[in-house]
Predict the structure.
Amino acid sequence: MAEKRSTPKIEVRTATTKDVSAIIALSAKVFKDEAPYTRGMVMGQLSAFPEGQFVVVYEDEIVGYAATMVLPEAKVMKQHSWAEVTGGGYAAMHDRKGDWLYGIEVCVDPDRRRLRIGKRLYDARRRLCTDMDLKGIAFGGRLPGYKRHAKKYGTPEAYLEAVRKNEITDPVASFHLKAGFEPEFLLKNYYPIDTASGGHGVLMVWPNPYYDPEHAKQPVNRSNPDIVRIVTVQMQARKMAATKEFYDAVEYFVEVAAEYDADFVVFPELFTLMLLSAEPEELKPEAAIARLTEHTPEFVERMTAMAIRRNINIIGGSHATRTEDGEIQNVGYAFLRDGSVHAREKIHPTPNERQYWHIQGGDPIDVIETDCGPVGIMICYDSEFPEIARRLCDQGARILFVPFNTDTRHGYLRVRYCCQARAIENQCYVVTSGMTGNLANVDNLDIEYAQSGIFTPCDFPFARDGIAAETSENVEMVAVADLNLSTLAWARYEGSVRNFRDRRLDLYRTRWSDGG
């Protein structure tokens, strides 16, 4: 008789990027009095430590989520806040050389509590901890019964001791004690908005009984370097007799990059202005930019086809696009080789863009998930605002693309210096692509100055001047570089300086309107 098989109704597995929306929805359901996770936070957790994020799936629905990271003992075993130790929820402080598995959060669907979802998630953490031969598991646990009993016990320490002695039951701490965790010490002001706990938490620990102290003395076996090849195009503005000429010119560079086996090819900001040179007469700025938006459907269709046909990810510079609310925005497009299209609006239009073209600033600032990991796009002027790069890197981006269009050397140097600063601040790669030449019959595109480059952090593993590759000034050409993502990881954990991880999150952090 043939063996009968059925699909499991409940499953515990590592989370993937396809689960992000469901995880956010679950967090909104669980944290009714708080802001739910943002997409950026979950993406940051998945990017920092993909093997440490778990979901419980019941009948094809995500009903549980546990986020973790690895931290050194010195950071775990001292006073800290949730925002400080987790990098604001992004897992930005994850340290692959740490020795404790640290729990960021556990979410359990309140409608599915009889499925022992929490226990399944904690069991998954224990398995990971033992597999990685870490010292143990630690996290800041809540004390939601404290406020209700504060008058009787006075201090949170006294309340915690009463819970530990089983004199009183706490909805959360008692569960952790039964699950085998022991309270280490009180974390003061661990999560200030948790009023039920008085803002405090308790450091709960589970020592790994299988931990081998000799493990740390063993040599580290590194995986093969994760190389991403980049081609950045410094494109010269030229008059076109027909729009086909523009796409032929673009496809030439896409083909060149594909022949180099590049993963990404990058084009300049507003390079589609060349399409206006095919107009029968020169248009005034406002009419010209409105006319350019009419090219959007064809632009997206053609660039998508190129990405698929050449099997390459195209950062399609930027293009003036009329959005659903009728505004015209400067939008950066990523055309991925799987056929997906991602649009990212320029957040900060320059005074010139606002005055001549009435371009409005966008709102969302999120990474784009690619087959080479999360990447970010900052369009020209956006690179001069450090908060944007920091948010993108917190979300997991290790490569930032900056299409730019500057008319003078002054403007170009502002972009260049800021991009190099962003590479150092965030210990990431920054790729710039600019326009050169001029178009006499396109208003507000009189002269262009560019020297495109691929920039790195400044430390021993990288190029001496923090320049992986660059073009000559004001010449149409490409620059090519292989970027090693493993080297970035090394720099963040072992570099001469560790800007990305050494932030004083106990003193400052940027708070975004979406809660990120």
Confidence is low (pLDDT under 50) at residues 1-6, 219-225. Residues 409-426 form the longest helix (18 residues). The radius of gyration is 26 Å.
